[in-house]
Amino acid sequence: RSESVSVMDSAAPEEGSLIEGVSDPVLLVLGLSVSFLLAMTTLLCRNEQQRIHPENQEHVRVVREQLQSEQLSSSEPRHQFYSDMSCPVCLQQAVLPVETNCGHLFCGPCIMAYWRYGTWLGAISCPICRQTVTLLFPLFRDTRRSAQTQEDQVEPALILRDIHDYNRRFSGQPRSLLERLRDVPTLLRHAFREMFSVGGLFWMFRVRILLCVLGALMYLASPLDFIPEGVLGLLGFMDDFFVILLLFIYISIMYREVVTQRLAG
């Protein structure tokens, strides 16, 4: 009889738990796991509302007026390659789109005019988030090959030259830890895009990424952890999430170094 009572006590749900039958550590790990996955998904697929930062509104207004006057004086319209993205500077569909290291998209001519008509001796601050722009990624590189006439290639070539000049000047600037974390989603997108494209990253860098991913997978599959699951239960999986986060940060840092060396060379 006493044995049956002990069995019933052991089968009874834990007292004081938020959900009956589920322990609090399990709920904590599930909540942290879901939050981590949602945060990474949001950072990688973010589509922020394109609102100009209040400190940049006057500068953007001047650039808009300058761009409008240039369009009126020029008889040749700018060639448009994308129809599903808008530029927050000119308030039109993106022309020769360019993405900043903070993940915001602008027209190539607009962001170059924003730099030229501002403090062109230094790196610009993003008109949306005020983060220092140290890298510009052109998203129209392949469209030059499909241009039909030589005139169609003039403006993309000029914008690419200006982007290269900007990156060469400011891509090597020191970055704080917070700025590096903000740059991770954008750098990862471009790194993996070049990783699986022909003529993108050189093979040694691809091998380094594969070795890092392989090492992380071996650690996740290994029973030897910094925080063993056998001692702390599901809380022991937290070091696995930390390893994944470090992997993403390290790949983004490597990719930034490759881009900087490519521009310097």
From TrEMBL:
<keyword id="KW-0472">Membrane</keyword>
<keyword id="KW-1133">Transmembrane helix</keyword>
<protein>
    <recommendedName>
        <fullName>E3 ubiquitin-protein ligase RNF170</fullName>
        <ecNumber>2.3.2.27</ecNumber>
    </recommendedName>
</protein>
<feature type="transmembrane region" description="Helical">
    <location>
        <begin position="26"/>
        <end position="45"/>
    </location>
</feature>
<dbReference type="InterPro" id="IPR017907">
    <property type="entry name" value="Znf_RING_CS"/>
</dbReference>
<keyword id="KW-0833">Ubl conjugation pathway</keyword>
<dbReference type="GO" id="GO:0016567">
    <property type="term" value="P:protein ubiquitination"/>
</dbReference>
<dbReference type="Pfam" id="PF13445">
    <property type="entry name" value="zf-RING_UBOX"/>
</dbReference>
<keyword id="KW-0479">Metal-binding</keyword>
<keyword id="KW-0863">Zinc-finger</keyword>
<keyword id="KW-0808">Transferase</keyword>
<keyword id="KW-0256">Endoplasmic reticulum</keyword>
<dbReference type="InterPro" id="IPR001841">
    <property type="entry name" value="Znf_RING"/>
</dbReference>
<keyword id="KW-0862">Zinc</keyword>
<comment type="pathway">
    <text>Protein modification; protein ubiquitination.</text>
</comment>
<feature type="transmembrane region" description="Helical">
    <location>
        <begin position="198"/>
        <end position="220"/>
    </location>
</feature>
<feature type="domain" description="RING-type">
    <location>
        <begin position="87"/>
        <end position="130"/>
    </location>
</feature>
<dbReference type="InterPro" id="IPR010652">
    <property type="entry name" value="DUF1232"/>
</dbReference>
<dbReference type="GO" id="GO:0008270">
    <property type="term" value="F:zinc ion binding"/>
</dbReference>
<feature type="transmembrane region" description="Helical">
    <location>
        <begin position="232"/>
        <end position="253"/>
    </location>
</feature>
<dbReference type="GO" id="GO:0061630">
    <property type="term" value="F:ubiquitin protein ligase activity"/>
</dbReference>
<keyword id="KW-0812">Transmembrane</keyword>
<dbReference type="InterPro" id="IPR038896">
    <property type="entry name" value="RNF170"/>
</dbReference>
<dbReference type="Pfam" id="PF06803">
    <property type="entry name" value="DUF1232"/>
</dbReference>
<dbReference type="InterPro" id="IPR027370">
    <property type="entry name" value="Znf-RING_euk"/>
</dbReference>
<dbReference type="InterPro" id="IPR013083">
    <property type="entry name" value="Znf_RING/FYVE/PHD"/>
</dbReference>
<dbReference type="GO" id="GO:0005789">
    <property type="term" value="C:endoplasmic reticulum membrane"/>
</dbReference>
